[in-house]
Amino acid sequence: MTVDDGTGDPSGTLLANVQTAIAAVRPVGSAFQVRAPSVVAADISLTVTAAAGYTQAQAVAATGTALTAAVNTGGMGAAFMFGRSTRWP
Question: pTM for this one?
């Protein structure tokens, strides 16, 4: 079982507690493993062009913030679709 507390680096205490809880209720003869997740960095590149009325720096900052939030809320194993967007919020 992969255990994450939202940080990507759960404590040894949390992993041990999960191990103990599962061991107490697992079927006889079954095996299991408790482990922390393997965090993988996403290499994302894109071109940002500022809309009229915005600076390039504003557009890049807003895009970075929104993209980081979207990836961070995706959860383990989440797939992300990509496409072309021409709208500014």
Answer: 0.54
